[in-house]
Amino acid sequence: MKRRERMRKKIAFLGHFDSTNFGNESTLQAILYHLRRFLPDAEVTCISTGPEATVATHHIDAIPIAEIFVKSWGPPKFSD
Question: In this structure, how many other beta carbons lie within 10 angstroms of the beta carbon of residue 35?
């Protein structure tokens, strides 16, 4: 078996998942249902607005959405 086929798939979802919006929760539930059918060994993480609720409801790892994802960078400014 090829190494790539043996490696466990890692999948992350980003969204406003926190059990307060029925539409978002239904979408995540459908995604997880089909993911578990087709890739039952996949390692799933959810990046969400309510990670505690996501973990409790869907039994997957979750981390919070941060306000700042990347700090902007630019070359240093030199004074004369």
Answer: 16
